[in-house]
Amino acid sequence: MKVVVYSHDADTRAEIRLAIGRRPAPDVPEAEVVEVATEPALFRLLDSGGVDVMVLDGEAQPAGGIGICRQAKDEIYQCPPVLLVIGRADDGWLATWSRADAVTSHPIDPVALARELAGLMRARAAIAPR
Fold it and tell me: Which of 5, 12, 62, 126 reaches 20 to 30 Å from 117, CA-CA?
């Protein structure tokens, strides 16, 4: 299952990749992690299709994951589910505004991130054509 990780920060992408591992839970498919550092690259990837789930860093610069999530939900037909990593737990209302499907916060808790991502991957696998 293709999981796209977006952040301008290579260390944040590495942290997320480490939390995902080969698969975030035993009952989900293996994750093919694709890292993206810029908004244009992310939208090119989304436009080409084949993305199953996205993990977006809400603190990314210059384009944050919160705004990108909202834009993707508005513009991408059958937008893949989004796990949004927000700066603070109090920013949860921004995740709601962005229409993220799941949310976790910085500092990255690998267990929480894997749990949320696994839930999105299960849901995506349930609706994927066989």
Answer: 62
Residue 57 belongs to what H/E stretch?
strand 53-57
In order along its 130 residues, the chain shows pLDDT tens digits of: 999 999 999 999 999 999 999 999 999 999 999 999 999 999 999 999 889 999 999 999 999 999 999 999 999 999 999 999 999 888 888 889 999 999 999 999 999 999 999 999 999 988 866 5
CA-nearest of 85, 87, 63 to 8 is 63
What structural domains does the chain harbor? 2-127 (3.40.50.2300)
Within 8 A by CB and 6+ apart from 75, the residues are: none
- H-run or E-run covering 127: helix 110-127
pTM for the model stands at 0.94
